[in-house]
Amino acid sequence: MQKLDSFSTDMKKTLLTAFMVAAAVATWAQSGTNSPYSQYGFGKLSDQSTGFNRGMNGLAMGFRDGNQVNFLNPASYSSVDSLTFIFDAGVSGQLTNFNENGLKKNAKNADFEYAVAAFRALPNLGVSFGVVPFTNVGYNYSNSNEVGDMNSTYYVNTYSGNGGLHQAYLGFGWQPFKGLSIGVNGSYLWGDYDRSVVNSYSDGYVNTISKYYSADVQNYKIDAGLQLYFKLSKKTDLLFGATYGYGHKIDADPEVKIISRNTQTAVSDTTTFVVKDGLELPSVFTAGFLIDHEKRIRFGADFSLQKWGDTSFPVDTKVNNVSSYELSKNYFKDVKKITVGGEYCRNPLSRKFFNTVRYKVGASYTTPYLIINGKDGPKELGVSAGFSFPIANQWNNRSILNISGQWVHASGTGMLTENTFRINIGLTFNERWFMKWKVE
Q1: Residue 40 host element (H or E)
Q2: What is the three-class DSSP state of 385?
Q3: How many of the other CB atoms lie within 10 Å of CB of 264?
Q4: Please, where are the H alpha helices in 151-231?
Q5: Burial of 211 (0-12, 13-18, 19+ CB in 10 A)
Q6: What per-residue confidence (pLDDT) applies to 432?
Q7: What is the 3 state secondary structure string of 71-96?
Q8: What is the pTM of this model?
Q9: Which of 71, 133, 206, 391 has the most CB atoms around its CB within 10 Å?
Q10: pLDDT-above-90 percentage for the chain
Q11: Cβ atoms of residues 301 and 288 within 8 Å
Q12: Model pLDDT, residue 346
């Protein structure tokens, strides 16, 4: 009995330490992208899925499983078992191929992505908390061209940027009665981005103009969720899920510094423009369903609408040789995303290892969220497949190793094409923390 208590205490300390370290790493994690498309808006939008549903390309609205953390629908937290504490952390590595007008280039990235946890606080009330990504900014490239008829002189524009936004959340899921669950995530959203366009000439030709863009974000984010579930038959359940993300201004003051330098006299002139409260989040609506047969066969679909088209973003313009930095309504588009996916397990209750492995597959299509030079930005097509392997030992048979692969194709008419292959690894610790041992 003392050995069991000692093990339980040690495990709690270990997992708490792991979570604090993981959260700290996630907080200071660098960008997980090399995409030139991250130079626009808030950067590349993260899908925010975790290990268990990445193999299904992020399918989440109807998932209600007591041994995984479904951060994307907080209503699911009420399904967490009363005896357990769940901790899930994930990393990814990716290879991206860029192709523009026949010119190809490859880039590699690795990233610590998320750390989330959940437990049952009261009967029918689950709690979850964690750190997840919101956007990523990371790129560095240049282009050059000759200056007019001056064949011996050319200019070079160097584009670079880094940063992104992170999200630390605390969420609650409550089941007021069987068949209905509601939930909410309250998040602290923070981060920054720094972008630059540096202009230079091959022989110190006249004036150069460089621009430096930056913003610092510290604000809140609210997401509410709902799940309805009922029996289609004795062995089959039908689950509906929906979420709403509140759109609002985020009290950030983006700025641009424009530096004009005469390369012959070395005299510089700096002009700074600031847009007060110039950034905002869109309203987000997501709904989906899941059919669950004996927890062996599950399949479903989600649809998401992100109202980016209702938001503005600051852009710098020049009219009659006068520069300005103002909000534009023609920067974003509403994003529509549809995801389909499912999983298969031969026998979740079997004692044979391969009978309990879960096989997953998914696909999604996402419309553009950017308007670039008056044209629609890249749309995305993604497919994924993965496995969930149970981890069994003398103390635990409930923890899970999730491994998945994703391929994402991003392209726009006349624009750069990106093909990304990503490997995701997530480890879910599911420990019996709250079990009371009886001694006779």
Answers
A1: none
A2: strand
A3: 10
A4: none
A5: middle
A6: 66
A7: CCCHHHHHHCCCCEEEEEEEEEEEEE
A8: 0.88
A9: 71
A10: 67
A11: yes
A12: 94
